Amino acid sequence: MKILVISDSHGRDENVKGVMEQVKDFDMVIHCGDVEGGEDYIKALTDKPVILVAGNNDFYSDLPDREIVEVEGYRIFVTHGHQFYVNFGTEDLETYCRQHNIQVAMFGHTHRPYLQIEDDLTVLNPGSISYPRQRERKQTYLIMEIDKQGEAHYFHGIYEGGSYRGFF
């Protein structure tokens, strides 16, 4: 099972399409919020399952602010993260996930790739495919791949095309 995890596309739907074309071989897409209106477009890009949650910029969206999905034995919590104050750390998110028997927490909002693997909980952020904020300013996504033995492996990827928006 190969899950493409993206976040913070901020209406740059062509970047979502570009990442899907670059990765190609995936079984599910998870978007961690700040879609900004492209929900139907994103779902139409693939016949694979697509999980979307609302971010702090999805003002008029009907998307849920969080989802729990079960994939091959993993309980995955998907949120944008602003409700858990992830700009200041992941402690609140980690506490919530441990209280709800979550094995993988996926969030966005910070626009920075992040991966923390512990025995009972993996916390990750794919970064942003439109407004990267890490030092290198690379547009990033993440692949969660579950092998035949049920082990999860995580890989950050760099989106090699599309439009990039810097910050002022």
UniProtKB/TrEMBL annotation:
<protein>
    <recommendedName>
        <fullName>Phosphoesterase</fullName>
        <ecNumber>3.1.4.-</ecNumber>
    </recommendedName>
</protein>
<dbReference type="InterPro" id="IPR000979">
    <property type="entry name" value="Phosphodiesterase_MJ0936/Vps29"/>
</dbReference>
<feature type="domain" description="Calcineurin-like phosphoesterase">
    <location>
        <begin position="1"/>
        <end position="148"/>
    </location>
</feature>
<keyword id="KW-0479">Metal-binding</keyword>
<dbReference type="GO" id="GO:0046872">
    <property type="term" value="F:metal ion binding"/>
</dbReference>
<comment type="similarity">
    <text>Belongs to the metallophosphoesterase superfamily. YfcE family.</text>
</comment>
<dbReference type="InterPro" id="IPR024654">
    <property type="entry name" value="Calcineurin-like_PHP_lpxH"/>
</dbReference>
<dbReference type="Pfam" id="PF12850">
    <property type="entry name" value="Metallophos_2"/>
</dbReference>
<dbReference type="InterPro" id="IPR029052">
    <property type="entry name" value="Metallo-depent_PP-like"/>
</dbReference>
<dbReference type="GO" id="GO:0016787">
    <property type="term" value="F:hydrolase activity"/>
</dbReference>
<dbReference type="InterPro" id="IPR041802">
    <property type="entry name" value="MPP_YfcE"/>
</dbReference>
